[in-house]
# Entry
Amino acid sequence: MAHVYELYDLIYKKYVFFNFFITLGLDRYWRRICLKKIYSVTPKPRRVLDICAGTGDMTMLLEKKFNSAEIYALDANKNMLSIAEKRLRRTHLVNSQLSDMPFDDNFFDLIVISFATRNIFYDKDLNSSLREIKRVLKNGGFFISLETTNYESSFMNFFMNIYVSTMIGIVNFFNPNYREAYMFLKSSSLRFNAMVFADRLKNFFSDVCCVKLFPGCVSIHISKK
Ligand SMILES: C[S@@+](CC[C@H](N)C(=O)[O-])C[C@H]1O[C@@H](n2cnc3c(N)ncnc32)[C@H](O)[C@@H]1O
# Structure
């Protein structure tokens, strides 16, 4: 596998269901809290981009919340976007890699990434992706990330490890073909640290802040160009 996004070819048909199953439905709650945060910092964006939009779960919420904004959803995986296409009403779908987006400089007021930050963090190209996000964002625009992160406490990480291993074990038992995709999910979610990501963001953006959500293993990072 040359790129992380190719893993989603294995699981795109069941992605929405497994997301719900592994998070026990909490992903919906986290997305709604994130949307409230987004609204509180930028209530009237004109152009919004959901990067690594996948099957469009976050894009659907952005469409509803910002009903007068122009909405774009970008993803490198065609199969994931084919599911998004059926669920979205008025979003421009863009099949592209993050590190080379087909948009003009300073184009968006708001860029959002949900449950995909780990995908770019463990890619060779984190810096070029962040540089590209900054390029297409307007001055004063916001880049907001929602992602599962590990705990600061090794005691809590121990329980998180058991939980994630159990849920992914169940998925792999019923669907052995998904093993490679879910092993990446497991190893990256246990390693990904909110404070380390905040430091990387500070190399490109200002006003970086990080908010943890219940039960402490999900973070929202807000940053500004
Ligand atoms: C875990 S899914 C998240 C989907 C969606 N944002 C959500 O909230 O459910 C990660 C998505 O990131 C996409 N992706 C991973 N690396 C990418 C890259 N370098 N450029 C564009 N998309 C990428 C994958 O194709 C996949 O659809």
In short: The CA atoms of residues 179 and 212 lie 29 Å apart. Strands lie at 47-51, 70-75, 92-95, 108-114, 137-148, 206-213, 218-224.
